[in-house]
Specification:
The protein is mostly helical. It has helices at 3-34, 37-57, 66-79, 81-113, 115-129, 133-144, 148-172, 176-184, 189-227, 231-241, 245-273, 275-283. Residues 86-266 form the ABC transmembrane type-1 domain.
C-alpha cells in the first residue's frame, strides 16, 4: 500500500465527520428557522416584495405600489392627519380596555369565588353575551348619540367578556391544596383571595386581557367608521369615499402595525408577570 493510500484512508474519517457535522448543523438550523417567527416574517417580506414588483410592473389604481403607499403615509404623518386620527382611536382603545379590564376582573373573579354572586350574575352575563354588538348599535346610538360615550361603551361591551370568562375560569381553578394552605395559615377570606386566589388566576386573566386587547382595537376602529367623526376608522372610511387608495392602505397598514406592536408589548408584560409560574414549573 502506498503512502498516498494510507493518507487517504486517514483523511476519509475526518471528511466524513466534517460532512456529518455540517449536515447536522444545517438540519438543526432548518428546524429552528421553520419553527420560529423568522419563517413567518420571511413569508410576509416575500409577499410584500411580490406586491411591490407586481404593482410596479402592472400599475393598477386599486393596488398601488408599497413605495407609493409609504410616501403617502409619510405625507399623512408629517401633516398630522394620520397621527391625530390614530391618537383618537388609541384614546378610545385605552379607556375602553382599562374599564373592561376592571369590570371583567372584578366581576369574573367574584363570580368564580362567591357562589351567591355567580348565581345572581350568571343569567344576565350569559344573556348579554349572546347579543351581537351590531344588534345593540341602533339602541346605543339612540341613547348615547355618536359621541365618545357611544364608542367607549361599545368597546367595553366587546372587551369585557373575554376578560370576565377567563378570570372566572382562573378563579375556579384554585386547587383544594391551596385552599387548605389558606386555612392552615388562618388567612381571612380577603387575604386568601388576594394572596392565593388572584395569583392562581393571573395566567387566565392575562390570556383574557390579551384577547380583549385585539378586540378593543378592532372595535375602536369600527366605531370610528360608524360614528363618522374621528379616529383611524373615520380616516380609512373617508379615504375610501374619495377614492384615495394610497391613504386607504396607509391607514389599514398602520392599524395592522399598531395591533402587532401592542400584542408584542403585552406578551413581554405577560412573560414578566408569570415568570414565577414558569420557574415553579421548572422546579417540578
Amino acid at each position: 500500500m502506498s503512502s498516498s493510500d494510507v493518507f487517504s484512508e486517514a483523511v476519509s474519517p475526518v471528511k466524513k465527520q466534517r460532512s456529518d457535522f455540517l449536515s447536522d448543523s444545517a438540519s438543526g438550523f432548518a428546524r429552528t428557522f421553520f419553527s420560529s417567527r423568522a419563517f413567518g416574517w420571511t413569508i410576509v417580506l416575500v409577499l410584500l416584495a411580490v406586491w411591490q414588483i407586481v404593482a410596479s410592473i402592472y400599475p393598477m389604481p386599486q393596488l398601488p405600489a408599497l413605495s407609493d403607499i409609504y410616501r403617502t403615509w409619510v405625507e399623512q404623518v408629517v401633516n398630522g392627519d394620520l397621527i391625530v386620527a390614530l391618537a383618537d382611536t388609541m384614546r378610545i382603545t385605552a379607556i375602553g380596555f382599562v374599564v373592561a379590564t376592571v369590570v371583567g376582573i372584578i366581576l369574573g373573579f367574584l363570580m368564580g369565588r362567591v357562589t351567591v354572586i355567580w348565581g345572581a350574575a350568571e343569567p344576565s352575563v350569559e344573556l348579554v353575551r349572546q347579543i351581537p354588538i351590531s344588534a345593540l348599535l341602533p339602541l346605543l346610538i339612540l341613547y348615547l348619540g355618536i359621541a365618545d360615550s357611544f364608542k367607549i361603551t361599545i368597546v367595553v361591551l366587546a372587551a369585557s367578556f373575554p376578560i370576565l370568562l377567563n378570570t372566572f375560569a382562573g378563579a375556579r381553578s384554585v386547587s383544594k391544596t391551596m385552599r387548605q394552605t389558606a386555612q392552615t395559615f388562618q388567612l381571612s377570606w380577603l387575604q386568601a383571595q388576594l394572596e392565593i386566589g388572584l395569583p392562581a388566576a393571573l395566567p387566565y386573566i392575562l390570556v383574557g386581557m390579551r384577547q380583549a386587547l385585539g378586540v378593543t382595537l378592532v372595535i375602536a376602529v369600527v366605531t370610528g367608521m360608524l360614528a363618522g367623526n374621528s379616529g383611524i376608522g373615520y380616516y380609512i372610511l373617508q379615504a375610501q369615499q374619495v377614492l384615495d387608495i394610497r391613504a386607504l392602505f396607509a391607514g389599514i397598514l398602520t392599524v395592522a402595525a399598531v395591533g402587532y406592536v401592542l400584542n408584542a408589548i403585552f406578551l413581554v408584560i405577560e412573560h414578566r408577570l408569570t415568570r414565577w409560574r414558569t420557574f415553579s414549573s421548572g422546579q417540578h
